[in-house]
Write a structure and sequence with these properties.
Elements (H helix, E strand, L loop, with lengths): L5 E4 L5 H10 L1 E4 L14 E4 L6 H4 L7 E4 L9 H6 L3 E3 L5 H18 L2 H9 L18 E5 L3 H14 L2 E5 L5 H6 L3 E2 L2 H4 L4 E4 L13 H5 L6 E4 L8 H10 L4 E4 L19 E3 L8 H19 L15
Parallel strand pairs: 1-2, 1-3, 3-4, 4-5, 6-7, 6-9, 7-8, 9-10, 10-11, 11-12
Helix pairs in contact: 1-11, 4-6, 4-11
């Protein structure tokens, strides 16, 4: 028999998910959640991108579970949650993986086709300059993926099946035969960075922080483009700005930043060869609805006393 939980939704999620959660549970949501007098009785937290440490969930002694709307959990203090015997589960896959993959490929195309510059030529009456500009192709390009999880696999399919691109991946923790089985060539990082298009799809961990720094950027080709729709902090943003400024690589598309929102004096802001977006690669209608419903499903498992299929810290149950 399921229990009725008090669910604190810290970040906004799709109304379809809120409706499903509210059908069986009590809900605290909105900007005033910190001041809700019921907060101490909250048993489940739903979180997207806000930082979540013990300072937030510590005042919730009845807390059972933290449910992440999405896959990445670098914003959650999982050891602190485990110490309090609080389950942490995420919601990877579904339409969200496809949405992020499409967002990454759309950035590739926008950079290769120099969409911002083409738009400016028309608006600024510089039409005649179009002949001096050479646009790039995704068709037949050599694409390198850093990471090979759900999102990267969709990117690989779009690039290879849709554009005839030659796709390789750098994934130290995945067997080469598993990568080849997906029609993708396994490759070391140094060789991968020699490709025409590099797209990052790996979680932010201590092992991947500043994975792309001055040395790695120096291995890239001057015509290459770099896309990051995974997590900020994987690319050293100061080093990237310098590489773009001096022509070490042609362009970059960045959807995620080490600090979100980034400061007004961020070094990437003044660069015309850098396309920026506010961490929205997965924010499509279908992707958001699907993920919110997945959040509701995890909460239903928690209420029924079941271990969520996406539980990340099973030691919390000890």
């Amino acid at each position: 028999m399921s229990s009725r939980e008090l669910v604190c939704i810290i970040d906004p999620i799709h109304p379809a998910g809120v409706e499903r959660i509210a059908a069986g549970h009590d809900v605290i949501a909105g900007e005033g959640w910190r001041d809700d007098p019921r907060l101490a009785d909250a048993s489940v937290i739903v979180i997207r991108t806000s930082p979540l440490g013990e300072d937030v969930f510590g005042p919730m002694p009845r807390l059972k579970a933290i449910v992440k709307h999405g896959a990445g959990v670098d914003n959650i203090d999982i050891p602190a949650a485990t110490g309090r015997k609080v389950m942490v589960a995420n919601t990877p896959g579904g339409n969200n993986s496809t949405a992020v993959a499409e967002g990454a490929v759309s950035m590739m195309l926008a950079l290769l086709r120099r969409v911002r510059e083409m738009d400016a030529l028309v608006r600024e009456n510089r039409w005649a300059e179009r002949w001096a500009i050479r646009l790039g192709d995704l068709t037949g390009a050599r694409v390198g993926l850093i990471g090979f999880g759900r999102i990267a696999r969709v990117v690989a399919t779009i690039c290879s099946a849709g554009f005839g691109a030659e796709v390789a991946a750098y994934v130290p923790m995945v067997a080469d035969e598993d990568i080849r089985a997906a029609g993708v060539e396994p490759m070391g990082l140094a060789d991968l960075l020699q490709r025409d298009v590099i797209s990052i799809h790996t979680p932010l961990t201590e092992g991947t922080r500043n994975l792309i720094d001055t040395v790695e950027l120096g291995l890239m080709q001057p015509h290459a483009i770099l896309v990051n729709c995974s997590r900020g902090g994987i690319i050293n943003e100061d080093a990237l700005a310098e590489a773009l400024r001096c022509g070490q690589l042609a362009a970059a598309g960045i959807d995620v930043f080490e600090a979100e929102p980034p400061p007004a004096d961020h070094p990437l802001f003044g660069l015309p060869n850098c396309l920026l977006s506010p961490h929205v690669a997965g924010v499509t209608e279908a992707g958001m609805k699907d993920m919110a419903l997945n959040v509701a499903a995890v909460i239903e498992d928690v209420a029924a006393g079941k271990m969520p299929a996406t539980l990340l810290n099973p030691e919390s149950l000890a």
